[in-house]
Each structure stands twice: as C-alpha cells, then as structure tokens.
Description:
By secondary structure, this protein is an alpha/beta fold. The protein has helices spanning about 5-10, 15-30, 35-40, 50-55, 75-80, 115-125, 160-175, and strands at about 60-65, 90-95, 105-110, 135, 145. The chain has 2 domains: about 1-35; about 45-150, no CATH class. The chain is built from 7 helices and 5 strands, in the order H-H-H-H-E-H-E-E-H-E-E-H. Strands 3-2-1-4-5 form a 5-stranded mixed β-sheet. It is globular, with a radius of gyration of 20 Å. The two termini are about 35 Å apart.
Amino acid sequence: MPTFEVLGLQFGVSKTEANDTFHYWLKILRNILPASLLEQVENPDSDYELVLELLTEVELIVDRMEQPRERPSDNQEQQKYFSDKKRQHPFKSQLITLPKGKDVVDVKIGERGPISELSLLRIPQEKFAFNQKFQGDKAYVGGKNLTTPDKKPRKGKLTEQQKVANKEFSSNRILSNT
Length: 178
C-alpha cells in the first residue's frame, strides 16, 4: 500500500488531497460492496446468535494472504512489520468463508507481517461457537477445531495414501471455475 505522498505524486496531487480522495472513495466502496456475514448481523436487533449456531453445522474455510508493502523508513516501524520468512514488511489478511467460497463470513485485513497464521486465526475464532469447525492449509497445523492436510515429517516422506488424502482435501477447499 503506497504512502499518500507517493500516491499523490502518481496522480499529480498533494498527499493531503490523495488522503482525502482515498477516504472519500473508501466510504462509497464500503456502502457498495457487501459486508461479511458477521458484519451484516452484528447489530443488537439481529439474529447474530442464530447465525453463529447455524454456522456450526458447516466446516468454515480459513485462508490468508499477504500484501507486500513499501519498507517503512522508521526503524521501529520496520521491526513491527518485518517478516523473516518472506524477508519483507507485508500486511497479512485472512478470510473465513463458507464451503466453496459461497459467502465471506469474516475478514481481517492489514495485520503485521511477523504474526503467524495460527495467531491470526485465534482472535476471530473467539467470535464463533466453541465447537465451530474450520479447514485450513498447512500453515494452520495445530489449531483448535481445525482440519488441515498432513504435513511431511522432517526428513521424511508422505505415504501415497496421505498424498491422495491431501489432494482431495485441497480440492474441496479450492473454488474452481468448473
């Protein structure tokens, strides 16, 4: 995410104008784009508890993504966002969806780079019922109520049966165009 100074330079406006324009459009896009399922029902008059109970009937899919960003100039800010694994300063985002990606249930955007995927999941996991099941990729191994594929043992190999099970597991998580 470029700084507003860089954004202003790209469009020939001041950084203040870039900031104002960004936040102006952000409000409009927030109204146009659909909110996550939990955001839609979180007001006190809604059926929030009912939705949480209905969600326990399905295994929700959780996945994360990283967005590279410009390296911060401040050394302390660099340390907060630096990810040793990627050797970058990324933002991490996480989506929790219904099976086959039919609807976004919850979203977390713009977390710091060094936070692990499992730690990133623990915070929104508290919103759900204690028995809510999730499906995640190998980055989520060891999580509570979380189904993940088999991970290759250190200096070992997966059996053919484990490989087939992993392939089937992944094909159920991934939304295909067919």
